[in-house]
Amino acid sequence: MAISQDSSKASILSKLLSPLRKKGSSSELELLDAMDSGQPIGDKDWQKSGKEHSWLHFTRHSPFNSSDMRIIVRGEGHYLYDSKGNRLIDALSGLYTCNAGHARQELADAAQKQMMELDFMPLWSFNHPRAIELTEKLLSIGPAGMTRIFFTTGGTEGVETAWKLAKQYYKLMGKPMKHKVISRMTSYHGTSHGALSITGLPNFKQVFEPLVPSAFRVPSNNYYRAPEQFKSEEEFGIWCANRLEEAILFEGPDTVAAFFIEPIQNAGGCFTAPPSYYKRVREICTKYDVVLVADETITGYGRSGEWFGSIRYDIQPDMMITAKAITSGAQPLGALFLKEKYFEPFSQGMTTFSHGYTFAGHPVACAVALANLQIFEREGLVDNVRTNSPVFRKTLEKLYDLPIVGDVRGDGYFFAIELVKNQKTKQQLTREESEKLLRGFLNNALLDAGLYCRADDRGDSVVQLAPPLTAGPKEFDEIEAILRKVLTEAWKKLNS
Ligand SMILES: Cc1ncc(COP(=O)(O)O)c(C=O)c1O
Fold this sequence. Notes:
17 helices, alpha/beta, single chain, binds pyridoxal-5'-phosphate
Protein backbone atom coordinates (compact mmCIF):
# COMPACT_ATOMS: atom_id res chain seq x y z
CA MET A 1 0.00 0.00 0.00
CA ALA A 2 1.57 3.30 -1.05
CA ILE A 3 0.81 6.11 1.36
CA SER A 4 1.04 9.45 -0.40
CA GLN A 5 2.41 12.43 1.36
CA ASP A 6 0.72 15.74 0.90
CA SER A 7 3.13 17.63 -1.38
CA SER A 8 3.05 20.99 0.44
CA LYS A 9 3.77 19.27 3.76
CA ALA A 10 6.57 17.32 2.12
CA SER A 11 8.14 20.44 0.80
CA ILE A 12 8.06 22.18 4.22
CA LEU A 13 9.58 19.12 5.83
CA SER A 14 12.23 18.91 3.17
CA LYS A 15 13.22 22.54 3.73
CA LEU A 16 13.48 21.91 7.44
CA LEU A 17 15.69 18.93 6.79
CA SER A 18 17.88 20.63 4.20
CA PRO A 19 20.85 21.07 6.58
CA LEU A 20 20.84 17.27 6.98
CA ARG A 21 20.74 16.83 3.24
CA LYS A 22 24.11 18.57 2.85
CA LYS A 23 25.88 15.99 4.96
CA GLY A 24 23.52 13.13 4.16
CA SER A 25 24.27 9.85 2.46
CA SER A 26 22.69 8.93 -0.85
CA SER A 27 19.69 7.23 0.74
CA GLU A 28 18.83 10.34 2.74
CA LEU A 29 19.01 12.29 -0.48
CA GLU A 30 16.69 9.82 -2.18
CA LEU A 31 14.05 10.03 0.53
CA LEU A 32 14.32 13.80 0.84
CA ASP A 33 14.23 14.22 -2.94
CA ALA A 34 11.11 12.10 -3.14
CA MET A 35 9.51 14.15 -0.36
CA ASP A 36 10.56 17.39 -1.99
CA SER A 37 9.14 16.51 -5.36
CA GLY A 38 5.84 15.44 -3.83
CA GLN A 39 6.20 11.85 -5.09
CA PRO A 40 4.21 9.23 -3.22
CA ILE A 41 6.30 7.91 -0.35
CA GLY A 42 5.60 4.51 1.04
CA ASP A 43 6.89 1.32 2.54
CA LYS A 44 9.79 0.86 0.11
CA ASP A 45 11.27 4.30 0.86
CA TRP A 46 10.78 3.97 4.61
CA GLN A 47 12.29 0.48 4.64
CA LYS A 48 15.41 1.65 2.84
CA SER A 49 15.96 4.69 5.00
CA GLY A 50 14.89 2.95 8.22
CA LYS A 51 17.25 0.04 7.68
CA GLU A 52 20.18 2.32 6.85
CA HIS A 53 19.74 4.97 9.53
CA SER A 54 17.30 4.08 12.32
CA TRP A 55 18.41 2.50 15.59
CA LEU A 56 15.46 0.85 17.30
CA HIS A 57 15.27 0.36 21.06
CA PHE A 58 15.90 -3.03 22.64
CA THR A 59 16.04 -4.41 19.07
CA ARG A 60 18.25 -6.95 17.39
CA HIS A 61 18.97 -5.34 14.02
CA SER A 62 20.49 -8.28 12.15
CA PRO A 63 17.11 -9.66 10.94
CA PHE A 64 16.62 -6.42 8.98
CA ASN A 65 19.48 -7.49 6.71
CA SER A 66 17.16 -10.06 5.20
CA SER A 67 13.63 -8.97 6.11
CA ASP A 68 11.62 -5.80 6.50
CA MET A 69 10.99 -3.70 9.58
CA ARG A 70 7.46 -3.43 10.86
CA ILE A 71 6.50 0.16 10.25
CA ILE A 72 3.30 1.16 11.96
CA VAL A 73 1.59 4.01 10.17
CA ARG A 74 -1.74 4.43 11.93
CA GLY A 75 -3.67 3.58 15.08
CA GLU A 76 -7.42 3.67 15.58
CA GLY A 77 -9.41 2.30 18.49
CA HIS A 78 -8.13 -1.21 19.22
CA TYR A 79 -6.22 -1.53 15.97
CA LEU A 80 -2.84 -0.65 14.45
CA TYR A 81 -2.11 -0.53 10.71
CA ASP A 82 1.30 -1.17 9.17
CA SER A 83 2.98 0.22 6.08
CA LYS A 84 2.09 -2.87 4.05
CA GLY A 85 -1.61 -2.39 4.73
CA ASN A 86 -1.99 -5.05 7.45
CA ARG A 87 -4.31 -4.58 10.42
CA LEU A 88 -3.20 -5.74 13.89
CA ILE A 89 -5.31 -5.94 17.00
CA ASP A 90 -3.38 -4.04 19.67
CA ALA A 91 -3.28 -6.41 22.63
CA LEU A 92 -0.45 -4.48 24.29
CA SER A 93 -1.92 -0.95 24.28
CA GLY A 94 1.15 0.33 22.43
CA LEU A 95 3.46 -0.52 25.34
CA TYR A 96 0.96 -0.59 28.24
CA THR A 97 0.23 3.03 27.33
CA CYS A 98 -2.82 3.52 25.08
CA ASN A 99 -5.37 2.60 27.74
CA ALA A 100 -8.14 4.72 26.17
CA GLY A 101 -7.43 3.24 22.72
CA HIS A 102 -5.80 4.93 19.73
CA ALA A 103 -6.60 8.24 18.02
CA ARG A 104 -8.83 9.90 20.59
CA GLN A 105 -10.05 13.20 19.15
CA GLU A 106 -10.34 14.83 22.58
CA LEU A 107 -6.65 14.27 23.25
CA ALA A 108 -5.71 15.90 19.95
CA ASP A 109 -8.03 18.84 20.68
CA ALA A 110 -6.60 19.30 24.18
CA ALA A 111 -3.05 19.29 22.79
CA GLN A 112 -3.84 21.82 20.10
CA LYS A 113 -5.64 24.16 22.49
CA GLN A 114 -2.81 24.02 24.99
CA MET A 115 -0.14 24.62 22.36
CA MET A 116 -1.78 27.90 21.41
CA GLU A 117 -2.28 28.94 25.05
CA LEU A 118 1.08 27.99 26.56
CA ASP A 119 3.24 25.73 24.44
CA PHE A 120 6.05 25.30 26.93
CA MET A 121 7.21 26.30 30.34
CA PRO A 122 9.42 24.19 32.57
CA LEU A 123 8.56 23.46 36.18
CA TRP A 124 11.91 24.91 37.20
CA SER A 125 10.92 27.60 39.73
CA PHE A 126 7.67 28.23 37.79
CA ASN A 127 4.34 26.49 37.75
CA HIS A 128 1.57 26.51 35.15
CA PRO A 129 -2.20 25.97 35.32
CA ARG A 130 -2.38 22.53 33.68
CA ALA A 131 0.31 21.11 36.00
CA ILE A 132 -1.58 22.47 39.00
CA GLU A 133 -4.95 21.17 37.79
CA LEU A 134 -3.50 17.78 36.91
CA THR A 135 -1.81 17.54 40.31
CA GLU A 136 -5.20 18.07 41.99
CA LYS A 137 -6.85 15.52 39.73
CA LEU A 138 -4.15 12.90 40.31
CA LEU A 139 -4.24 13.29 44.07
CA SER A 140 -8.04 12.90 44.00
CA ILE A 141 -7.79 9.48 42.31
CA GLY A 142 -4.54 8.32 43.96
CA PRO A 143 -4.07 6.22 47.10
CA ALA A 144 -4.92 7.81 50.45
CA GLY A 145 -2.21 9.89 52.04
CA MET A 146 -0.52 11.17 48.88
CA THR A 147 -0.26 14.97 48.86
CA ARG A 148 2.46 15.92 46.35
CA ILE A 149 3.19 15.21 42.70
CA PHE A 150 6.66 15.44 41.15
CA PHE A 151 6.33 15.26 37.37
CA THR A 152 8.70 13.33 35.10
CA THR A 153 8.50 12.32 31.44
CA GLY A 154 8.41 8.56 31.99
CA GLY A 155 8.88 5.56 34.25
CA THR A 156 12.68 5.47 34.39
CA GLU A 157 12.77 9.07 35.54
CA GLY A 158 10.18 8.27 38.20
CA VAL A 159 12.33 5.42 39.53
CA GLU A 160 15.46 7.56 39.44
CA THR A 161 13.67 10.42 41.19
CA ALA A 162 12.25 8.21 43.93
CA TRP A 163 15.66 6.77 44.78
CA LYS A 164 17.43 10.14 44.76
CA LEU A 165 14.68 11.69 46.84
CA ALA A 166 14.78 8.86 49.38
CA LYS A 167 18.56 9.32 49.71
CA GLN A 168 18.38 13.06 50.24
CA TYR A 169 15.38 12.75 52.56
CA TYR A 170 17.27 10.45 54.92
CA LYS A 171 20.32 12.71 54.86
CA LEU A 172 18.11 15.62 55.88
CA MET A 173 16.52 13.49 58.59
CA GLY A 174 19.90 12.76 60.18
CA LYS A 175 20.13 9.19 58.79
CA PRO A 176 22.86 9.70 56.14
CA MET A 177 23.73 6.00 55.90
CA LYS A 178 20.28 5.09 54.54
CA HIS A 179 20.89 4.88 50.81
CA LYS A 180 20.51 1.25 49.65
CA VAL A 181 17.57 -0.09 47.69
CA ILE A 182 15.98 -3.50 47.48
CA SER A 183 13.83 -4.75 44.61
CA ARG A 184 12.58 -8.08 43.31
CA MET A 185 14.31 -10.62 41.09
CA THR A 186 13.40 -10.49 37.38
CA SER A 187 11.79 -7.06 37.80
CA TYR A 188 12.25 -4.26 35.26
CA HIS A 189 12.44 -0.67 36.51
CA GLY A 190 14.00 1.23 33.59
CA THR A 191 17.23 1.95 31.78
CA SER A 192 19.19 4.81 33.37
CA HIS A 193 22.10 3.78 35.57
CA GLY A 194 20.11 4.13 38.78
CA ALA A 195 16.92 2.52 37.49
CA LEU A 196 18.90 -0.27 35.83
CA SER A 197 20.64 -0.95 39.14
CA ILE A 198 17.21 -1.46 40.71
CA THR A 199 16.15 -3.69 37.80
CA GLY A 200 16.43 -7.38 38.67
CA LEU A 201 17.50 -8.75 35.27
CA PRO A 202 21.23 -9.62 35.35
CA ASN A 203 21.40 -10.24 31.58
CA PHE A 204 20.19 -6.72 30.88
CA LYS A 205 22.78 -5.21 33.19
CA GLN A 206 26.04 -7.02 32.53
CA VAL A 207 27.19 -4.99 29.54
CA PHE A 208 26.63 -1.71 31.40
CA GLU A 209 28.33 -2.64 34.63
CA PRO A 210 29.54 -1.27 36.91
CA LEU A 211 26.19 0.27 37.77
CA VAL A 212 25.16 2.26 40.82
CA PRO A 213 26.21 0.23 43.86
CA SER A 214 23.91 -0.57 46.78
CA ALA A 215 21.00 -2.28 45.04
CA PHE A 216 19.92 -5.74 46.21
CA ARG A 217 17.32 -8.30 45.22
CA VAL A 218 14.75 -10.50 46.96
CA PRO A 219 12.54 -13.22 45.38
CA SER A 220 9.55 -12.26 43.31
CA ASN A 221 6.09 -13.75 43.74
CA ASN A 222 6.22 -16.45 41.10
CA TYR A 223 3.72 -18.81 42.70
CA TYR A 224 3.57 -21.04 39.59
CA ARG A 225 7.20 -21.95 40.25
CA ALA A 226 7.08 -21.87 44.05
CA PRO A 227 8.63 -24.88 45.78
CA GLU A 228 6.08 -27.58 46.63
CA GLN A 229 6.46 -27.04 50.37
CA PHE A 230 4.13 -24.02 50.06
CA LYS A 231 0.56 -25.16 50.35
CA SER A 232 -1.09 -21.85 49.46
CA GLU A 233 -0.30 -18.58 47.72
CA GLU A 234 -0.82 -16.78 51.03
CA GLU A 235 1.84 -18.89 52.69
CA PHE A 236 4.24 -18.33 49.80
CA GLY A 237 3.46 -14.60 49.95
CA ILE A 238 4.50 -14.43 53.60
CA TRP A 239 7.69 -16.33 52.83
CA CYS A 240 8.56 -13.88 50.02
CA ALA A 241 7.86 -10.87 52.23
CA ASN A 242 10.02 -12.31 54.99
CA ARG A 243 12.95 -12.41 52.54
CA LEU A 244 12.67 -8.61 52.47
CA GLU A 245 13.05 -8.44 56.24
CA GLU A 246 15.99 -10.80 56.03
CA ALA A 247 17.70 -8.60 53.40
CA ILE A 248 17.11 -5.42 55.42
CA LEU A 249 18.52 -7.03 58.56
CA PHE A 250 21.48 -8.45 56.64
CA GLU A 251 22.38 -5.11 55.03
CA GLY A 252 21.61 -3.20 58.21
CA PRO A 253 18.31 -1.29 58.61
CA ASP A 254 20.22 1.98 59.04
CA THR A 255 21.60 1.59 55.49
CA VAL A 256 18.42 0.67 53.58
CA ALA A 257 16.43 3.55 52.08
CA ALA A 258 13.75 1.98 49.88
CA PHE A 259 12.01 -1.11 48.58
CA PHE A 260 10.62 -1.00 45.03
CA ILE A 261 7.77 -3.25 43.88
CA GLU A 262 5.34 -3.40 41.00
CA PRO A 263 1.82 -4.31 42.15
CA ILE A 264 1.78 -6.85 39.31
CA GLN A 265 5.33 -7.64 38.22
CA ASN A 266 5.64 -7.39 34.46
CA ALA A 267 8.96 -9.07 33.61
CA GLY A 268 8.73 -12.79 34.24
CA GLY A 269 5.06 -12.62 33.27
CA CYS A 270 2.45 -10.83 35.36
CA PHE A 271 3.28 -12.06 38.88
CA THR A 272 0.47 -11.13 41.22
CA ALA A 273 0.79 -11.40 44.99
CA PRO A 274 -1.74 -12.30 47.70
CA PRO A 275 -2.93 -9.79 50.35
CA SER A 276 -0.66 -11.46 52.93
CA TYR A 277 2.38 -10.35 50.94
CA TYR A 278 1.49 -6.68 50.69
CA LYS A 279 0.38 -6.53 54.32
CA ARG A 280 3.64 -8.03 55.55
CA VAL A 281 5.73 -5.83 53.22
CA ARG A 282 3.98 -2.74 54.61
CA GLU A 283 4.67 -3.88 58.18
CA ILE A 284 8.35 -4.52 57.43
CA CYS A 285 8.88 -1.15 55.69
CA THR A 286 7.23 0.66 58.59
CA LYS A 287 9.21 -1.29 61.18
CA TYR A 288 12.61 -0.49 59.61
CA ASP A 289 11.75 2.97 58.26
CA VAL A 290 12.20 1.92 54.63
CA VAL A 291 10.36 3.86 51.90
CA LEU A 292 7.86 1.56 50.19
CA VAL A 293 7.85 2.57 46.51
CA ALA A 294 5.14 1.17 44.24
CA ASP A 295 6.31 1.25 40.62
CA GLU A 296 3.01 1.60 38.77
CA THR A 297 4.53 2.51 35.43
CA ILE A 298 2.38 -0.25 33.93
CA THR A 299 -0.28 -0.96 36.55
CA GLY A 300 -1.35 2.69 36.96
CA TYR A 301 -4.43 4.21 35.36
CA GLY A 302 -6.89 1.36 35.41
CA ARG A 303 -4.78 -1.56 34.20
CA SER A 304 -5.40 -3.58 37.40
CA GLY A 305 -9.14 -2.85 37.64
CA GLU A 306 -8.69 0.06 40.05
CA TRP A 307 -7.18 3.45 39.31
CA PHE A 308 -3.95 2.07 40.75
CA GLY A 309 -2.73 -1.36 41.79
CA SER A 310 -1.79 0.20 45.14
CA ILE A 311 -5.50 0.80 45.78
CA ARG A 312 -6.61 -2.57 44.42
CA TYR A 313 -4.18 -4.50 46.65
CA ASP A 314 -4.13 -2.05 49.58
CA ILE A 315 -0.35 -1.65 49.28
CA GLN A 316 -0.25 1.73 51.08
CA PRO A 317 2.97 2.91 49.40
CA ASP A 318 4.96 5.93 50.55
CA MET A 319 5.84 6.86 46.98
CA MET A 320 4.12 5.77 43.78
CA ILE A 321 5.65 5.98 40.30
CA THR A 322 3.26 6.37 37.35
CA ALA A 323 3.79 7.15 33.66
CA LYS A 324 2.72 5.58 30.34
CA ALA A 325 -1.12 5.55 30.41
CA ILE A 326 -1.43 8.87 32.26
CA THR A 327 -1.89 10.37 28.77
CA SER A 328 -2.92 7.08 27.11
CA GLY A 329 0.44 7.41 25.38
CA ALA A 330 -0.50 10.50 23.40
CA GLN A 331 2.19 12.56 25.17
CA PRO A 332 5.23 11.58 27.25
CA LEU A 333 4.54 12.20 30.92
CA GLY A 334 5.10 10.64 34.32
CA ALA A 335 3.93 11.55 37.82
CA LEU A 336 5.58 10.50 41.07
CA PHE A 337 3.06 10.55 43.94
CA LEU A 338 4.48 11.36 47.38
CA LYS A 339 3.41 11.55 50.98
CA GLU A 340 3.86 14.93 52.64
CA LYS A 341 6.55 13.68 55.01
CA TYR A 342 9.03 13.48 52.11
CA PHE A 343 8.35 17.09 51.20
CA GLU A 344 8.47 18.51 54.72
CA PRO A 345 12.27 18.80 55.08
CA PHE A 346 12.28 20.70 51.77
CA SER A 347 9.62 23.18 52.85
CA GLN A 348 11.86 25.41 54.97
CA GLY A 349 15.02 27.44 54.58
CA MET A 350 17.45 26.87 51.73
CA THR A 351 16.89 23.14 51.22
CA THR A 352 16.25 22.18 47.59
CA PHE A 353 15.76 18.93 45.75
CA SER A 354 18.28 19.65 42.99
CA HIS A 355 16.71 17.39 40.42
CA GLY A 356 14.40 17.80 37.44
CA TYR A 357 13.82 17.37 33.71
CA THR A 358 13.25 20.01 31.02
CA PHE A 359 10.12 18.37 29.64
CA ALA A 360 8.64 16.98 32.87
CA GLY A 361 5.13 18.30 33.44
CA HIS A 362 5.06 19.74 29.91
CA PRO A 363 1.91 21.89 29.58
CA VAL A 364 0.72 20.00 26.49
CA ALA A 365 1.26 16.64 28.18
CA CYS A 366 -0.61 17.82 31.29
CA ALA A 367 -3.53 19.07 29.17
CA VAL A 368 -3.68 15.74 27.37
CA ALA A 369 -3.54 13.85 30.68
CA LEU A 370 -6.47 15.87 32.02
CA ALA A 371 -8.49 15.12 28.87
CA ASN A 372 -7.48 11.47 29.08
CA LEU A 373 -8.66 11.11 32.66
CA GLN A 374 -11.96 12.73 31.67
CA ILE A 375 -12.40 10.03 29.01
CA PHE A 376 -11.67 7.38 31.65
CA GLU A 377 -14.37 8.80 33.91
CA ARG A 378 -16.98 9.46 31.26
CA GLU A 379 -16.58 6.03 29.67
CA GLY A 380 -16.15 4.18 32.98
CA LEU A 381 -12.95 2.51 31.77
CA VAL A 382 -11.79 1.37 35.20
CA ASP A 383 -15.21 -0.20 35.85
CA ASN A 384 -15.02 -1.83 32.43
CA VAL A 385 -11.79 -3.56 33.44
CA ARG A 386 -13.24 -4.68 36.76
CA THR A 387 -16.35 -6.08 35.07
CA ASN A 388 -14.62 -7.72 32.13
CA SER A 389 -11.37 -8.94 33.68
CA PRO A 390 -12.91 -12.31 34.70
CA VAL A 391 -14.24 -12.69 31.14
CA PHE A 392 -10.78 -11.97 29.74
CA ARG A 393 -9.22 -14.51 32.10
CA LYS A 394 -11.82 -17.16 31.19
CA THR A 395 -11.29 -16.55 27.49
CA LEU A 396 -7.53 -16.98 27.85
CA GLU A 397 -7.98 -20.05 30.08
CA LYS A 398 -9.70 -21.80 27.17
CA LEU A 399 -6.15 -22.12 25.79
CA TYR A 400 -5.30 -24.63 28.53
CA ASP A 401 -6.37 -27.30 26.06
CA LEU A 402 -3.14 -26.55 24.16
CA PRO A 403 -0.22 -28.55 25.60
CA ILE A 404 2.16 -25.57 25.34
CA VAL A 405 0.10 -23.45 27.77
CA GLY A 406 1.42 -23.97 31.30
CA ASP A 407 -0.07 -21.07 33.23
CA VAL A 408 -2.47 -18.19 32.65
CA ARG A 409 -1.93 -15.51 35.28
CA GLY A 410 -2.41 -11.83 35.95
CA ASP A 411 -5.21 -9.48 36.87
CA GLY A 412 -7.27 -6.66 35.40
CA TYR A 413 -6.38 -6.32 31.72
CA PHE A 414 -2.86 -7.62 32.24
CA PHE A 415 -2.25 -11.31 31.67
CA ALA A 416 0.63 -13.62 30.81
CA ILE A 417 0.54 -17.08 29.33
CA GLU A 418 3.58 -19.13 30.31
CA LEU A 419 4.74 -21.52 27.62
CA VAL A 420 6.02 -24.92 28.74
CA LYS A 421 7.26 -28.19 27.32
CA ASN A 422 5.11 -30.24 29.64
CA GLN A 423 1.91 -28.98 31.23
CA LYS A 424 1.94 -31.62 33.99
CA THR A 425 5.55 -31.26 35.10
CA LYS A 426 5.71 -27.51 34.23
CA GLN A 427 8.96 -28.21 32.39
CA GLN A 428 10.43 -24.95 31.11
CA LEU A 429 11.76 -24.25 27.65
CA THR A 430 15.54 -24.14 27.65
CA ARG A 431 17.21 -20.83 26.74
CA GLU A 432 17.96 -22.22 23.27
CA GLU A 433 14.41 -23.46 22.76
CA SER A 434 12.98 -20.16 23.90
CA GLU A 435 15.30 -18.24 21.59
CA LYS A 436 14.33 -20.43 18.67
CA LEU A 437 10.63 -20.34 19.42
CA LEU A 438 10.20 -16.67 20.36
CA ARG A 439 12.61 -14.95 18.00
CA GLY A 440 12.62 -17.62 15.34
CA PHE A 441 8.86 -18.03 15.12
CA LEU A 442 6.40 -16.52 17.60
CA ASN A 443 7.23 -12.83 17.29
CA ASN A 444 6.62 -12.79 13.56
CA ALA A 445 3.90 -15.42 13.48
CA LEU A 446 1.74 -13.47 15.95
CA LEU A 447 2.12 -10.27 13.94
CA ASP A 448 1.54 -12.09 10.65
CA ALA A 449 -1.65 -13.49 12.13
CA GLY A 450 -2.78 -9.96 13.07
CA LEU A 451 -1.99 -9.84 16.80
CA TYR A 452 0.32 -7.32 18.46
CA CYS A 453 1.25 -8.60 21.93
CA ARG A 454 4.53 -9.49 23.62
CA ALA A 455 6.45 -12.75 23.53
CA ASP A 456 9.02 -12.32 26.27
CA ASP A 457 11.70 -14.48 27.87
CA ARG A 458 13.40 -12.11 30.28
CA GLY A 459 12.25 -14.70 32.82
CA ASP A 460 10.52 -17.90 31.71
CA SER A 461 8.93 -17.84 28.26
CA VAL A 462 5.63 -15.96 28.24
CA VAL A 463 3.20 -14.23 25.94
CA GLN A 464 1.80 -11.07 27.51
CA LEU A 465 -1.50 -9.35 26.87
CA ALA A 466 -2.59 -5.89 27.94
CA PRO A 467 -5.29 -4.56 25.60
CA PRO A 468 -6.75 -1.04 25.82
CA LEU A 469 -9.24 -0.69 28.68
CA THR A 470 -11.94 0.01 26.09
CA ALA A 471 -11.73 -3.62 24.91
CA GLY A 472 -14.36 -6.22 25.75
CA PRO A 473 -15.45 -9.81 24.98
CA LYS A 474 -15.37 -9.29 21.19
CA GLU A 475 -11.69 -8.30 21.31
CA PHE A 476 -10.87 -11.08 23.81
CA ASP A 477 -12.32 -13.65 21.39
CA GLU A 478 -10.30 -12.23 18.53
CA ILE A 479 -7.12 -12.38 20.62
CA GLU A 480 -7.85 -15.95 21.76
CA ALA A 481 -8.54 -17.18 18.23
CA ILE A 482 -5.21 -15.85 16.94
CA LEU A 483 -3.29 -17.17 19.95
CA ARG A 484 -4.91 -20.59 19.51
CA LYS A 485 -3.82 -20.80 15.90
CA VAL A 486 -0.27 -19.54 16.48
CA LEU A 487 0.39 -21.47 19.72
CA THR A 488 -0.82 -24.68 18.07
CA GLU A 489 1.78 -24.09 15.39
CA ALA A 490 4.39 -23.17 18.05
CA TRP A 491 3.90 -26.52 19.78
CA LYS A 492 4.57 -28.31 16.50
CA LYS A 493 7.74 -26.25 15.98
CA LEU A 494 8.91 -26.96 19.51
CA ASN A 495 8.56 -30.67 18.97
CA SER A 496 9.79 -30.88 15.40
C1 LIG B 1 7.70 -1.15 36.05
C2 LIG B 1 8.43 -0.26 35.12
N1 LIG B 1 9.22 0.71 35.61
C3 LIG B 1 9.89 1.55 34.82
C4 LIG B 1 9.78 1.46 33.45
C5 LIG B 1 10.54 2.41 32.57
O1 LIG B 1 9.64 3.30 32.01
P1 LIG B 1 10.06 4.24 30.75
O2 LIG B 1 10.31 3.31 29.61
O3 LIG B 1 8.87 5.12 30.58
O4 LIG B 1 11.25 5.00 31.16
C6 LIG B 1 8.96 0.49 32.88
C7 LIG B 1 8.81 0.38 31.43
O5 LIG B 1 8.10 -0.42 30.90
C8 LIG B 1 8.28 -0.41 33.73
O6 LIG B 1 7.49 -1.37 33.25
